[in-house]
Amino acid sequence: MRWRYILYVVGTLIVFIGLSMLLPLTFGLYYGDESVAPLLKSMGVTVLVGLLLFLLFRKRREEIMRQSEGMAIVTAGWAAAGAFGALPFFMGSESVSFVDALFESVSGFTTTGASILTDIESTSKGLLMWRSFIQWLGGMGIIVLSIAILPFLGVGGMQLYKAEVPSPVPDKLKPRIRDTALILWKVYALFSLAQIILLMLGGMSFFNAVCHAFTTMPTGGFSTRNASIAHFDSLYLDVVIVFFMLMAGINFSLHYQMLRGRPLAFWKDGECRFFLAIVGLFVLLVTLDLFRHGVYDSLGEALRYGAFQVTSIITTTGYATANYELWPAMSQIILLTCMFLGASAGSTGGGMKCLRIILCFKYCYRELFLLLHPRAVSTIKIGGKPVADDVMRSVLGFLLLYIGLFIASAIILGGLGVDFVTSLTAVATAIGNVGPGFGSVGPADNYAHLPHAAKWLLIWCMLLGRLEIFTILIFLVPAYWRK
Q1: What is the spatial distance between Cα 72 and Cα 59, in angstroms, rounded to a whole number?
Q2: What confidence score (pLDDT) does residue 146 get?
């Protein structure tokens, strides 16, 4: 393991994180709020540390990155992003401990959306912009962004892409991985710009429109208001945000194909059809359940709030327009199911991913089929192409680890004194990068009241979920450390 090379690349990423604080600093200066000093200090410390690592461990020749080193860089890069991203929150408020600041930062970069801020609206504009911007950066991935804009990272980019992009089978849109990453970010930025314009047409201020676009496309869910999207109480804004949450929950390579004049790419993709069908089914069931129990007076109202909340949870965005803890049991169970399912592979959403669920269903069906026809040759296919055995093993291993880690973490959280419902759903939303759960971490609450040990555990779960579990757990395998 070439630690000099790893620290060199991580140092480069830290410099980028520091420079990215210029955007919220600009907003802080414009509004003349108290975020200017903490952002300046944080930027100075971050850039200085990054430059020291960059200069001390600078490579002297082009080096090819190994897969194990790619995983180390991704994990160390996200850990560093969380730590240095916490500095503005820590320096910007005397009441925020470093653990709370780290929780908020990691929640932002991992696009989880779980918050410790008890009064968001009293937070300075500069810090709110930083809070939103780190979700936007984390959505498509700081590592992928770095590959796109830092060509001197060289030919080792594919290892980073495989470790970073949330998909069992990453799509290479171009022969060079740097070109692929750049395409993904162009599509991402284009959708973000379109959403900003549409939100402003609906009456949002420029600041609020930018912040909410920065947290919708990465399926992050941080809002500038205590009541989240419910504060605006606008059907138009609800529809716009639902549309962009759905777009963010679909594989971004399909958006690229659509922009190149192939709109049927969505229909031809089996995972996209499955994702949209599940969303449609759950919206229908929740709408009918809400109307049947008289939660809303009209079917239209039930559809509006049901569609928003289902889309928000299944894409792991985490916005809220209603307190769904007051909804009937069936609707709550559907939302809990959405927390585990998640969005499409290759999207900015979290959760298990629909592609893995499809492969699991196909695997189970094949086992049943082989019981009836033991001599038959049956192959699992996606999009008409056979799925390799190593991919299937990876998918099944991921699902088992996901459930195992969920159960173990929920038990530990319960042991720390957190109640049953909160323990289960806090871990589910952390490892699924969803945000709000049930119990004392529901849509009308936050995570500030949890003990520090619980926050450390949830930070770990958020990173596990964002980096697809294997990227972090590989460090626990003794063989990884052998030459």
Answers
A1: 17
A2: 53
